[in-house]
Amino acid sequence: MSPVATLNITTPVPSIQGHFGRHLTTYTTQIPALQIKKILGHDPRSKNWKLLPEDTRKIYEQIQRTTGKNRRDAVSLYIEQRFGNREQIGAFPAISIGVTNTLRFEPSELNSAIGILHLDEDGQRILLDGLGRITGALDLSEEPGGKELVEKLVFPVTFYLPSEEQKVLSATDLGQLFSDFNFRVYPVPARINLSLDQSDIYISLANSIAKEPFIAANGGMEFKAASLGKKSTALVVQSVLVRTIRGACEGRDFQESNLANPPASANLSEATFTQEHASITGFFEEISSRMGTRWTDRESLHLSSAGWQALGVLHNDMFHRNLSLSPAEIDAMYAKVAALDWSRSNRDWADVAKLGIWAIPKDGTTEQLVILGAGRNNTQAIITYLRVLTGLDARLQK
Predict the structure, then answer these.
(1) Comparing C-alpha atoms, which of 121, 100, 379, 378 is closest to residue 243?
(2) Which of 53, 63, 137, 260 shows the smallest number of beta carbons within 10 Å?
């Protein structure tokens, strides 16, 4: 053996070998988050692409997406919440790294699929899947107190290498894998995710409030369904109630997306959970008790998705917008909301609220409100109408 060959220094990585067809060989292992840069041989964050060697930079720019601030912040927040002081289960799926060249694998004596993968300096190693996770972790490690938390993280990692037959993976090959991992998948529907997620504090509050009599005694809450079917006896579906709670706590902007991050000065926290629960429950109990039997009329607009969400925002207006409302003013607002004709036969919904048109619906015989707009616009139309009705509009403008 030549002297030069003995100087071929590699990074040994304990791995389990696998295969995908005859073109790809895989190696699965666990790598501390802060060692990902060492394993890759570069910092994969999109803010550093311009510093990479030209051929590596071109591959990233060709196959990857830059990581936006919202995505980075969401990952950092997830790490802090799940692996910090809060005792809540959490994990990340495997990071995928594409390797353009074959590497030496040294199998163990006990099992030929278990052994040591030797990473050398030949070829290129590109992050195929997990850029947002790695970016969030590395960014958090650079913040005060963040490094100690990230040091505890170990990412499962799968290396994708060309088989001995394939010899090499091109940028086109890596791009195909990126496409397969990121676009040939079907995301979990939001309604299913809501029914499974036990960590989101707004979902937890919605689930807790659903047990209160104004919901539980009137059909309860339906999980997983996107909307109430004709045969459903439930009062509300979980996805609508969660948005209602988001609006009740933080306002309209936070209500519109289940993926939005809470504002820095969020009203709902672990410390305020009981307080918010009592406030929102009291709000709906006042309205439901004053409406009497009309509260359970499933054809009424207050039980539509837009109606629930609008009432949630109204709670935020009354109790979180620093309006300093007196008990008498609050009582008067409850009275107006409860006395409002929420049926579709109230022409004000068309003429004043501009929620739709006044017409005879399909298969109908009598003129009534016919809603034509999108859900977002409908919610805003009801919010605006309720604010004028209760006098909140003038108070908020001040």
Answers:
(1) 379
(2) 53
Phi, psi of 230, deg, nearest 5:
-65, -30
In DSSP terms, 195 is beta-bridged to none
Beta-carbon contacts of residue 48 (< 8 Å; ≥ 6 apart)? 42
The DSSP 8-state label assigned to residue 46 in this structure reads G
Q: What is the mean pLDDT, run by run of 10 residues, along the chain of 398 residues?
A: 61 95 96 94 93 88 84 84 72 94 94 95 89 94 90 95 93 88 72 64 92 96 81 91 96 81 85 96 97 94 95 97 95 97 94 91 86 82 96 92
Cβ 232 vs Cβ 222: under 8 Å: yes
> E-assigned strands of the chain?
11-20, 24-32, 95-99, 104-107, 114-119, 125-129, 154-162, 221-222, 236-237, 357-359, 368-370
The phi, psi pair for 104, rounded to 5°, reads: -80, 130
Between β-strands 95-99 and 154-162, what pairing exists: parallel, antiparallel or unpaired?
A: parallel
Question: CA-CA distances (angstroms) from residue 235 to 139, 214, 277, 300, 339?
Answer: 44, 9, 19, 11, 20
- Unique residue bearing structure tokens 């902007």: 253
330: its two tokens: 């609050």
Per the confidence metrics, is the pTM higher than 0.70? no
Q: Please spell the DSSP secondary structure of 190-208, one letter per residue.
A: HHHHHHH--S-HHHHHHHH
CA-based end-to-end distance of the chain? 85
List all residues 6 or more positions away from 215 whose beta carbon is below 8 Å from its beta carbon: 209, 221, 235, 236, 241, 284
Domain boundaries of the chain, sorted by first residue: 10-185, 191-397
Whole-number Å distance between alpha carbons of 294 and 189: 32
Please answer whether residues 383 and 314 qualify as being in contact, where contact means their C-beta atoms are separated by less than 8 angstroms.
yes
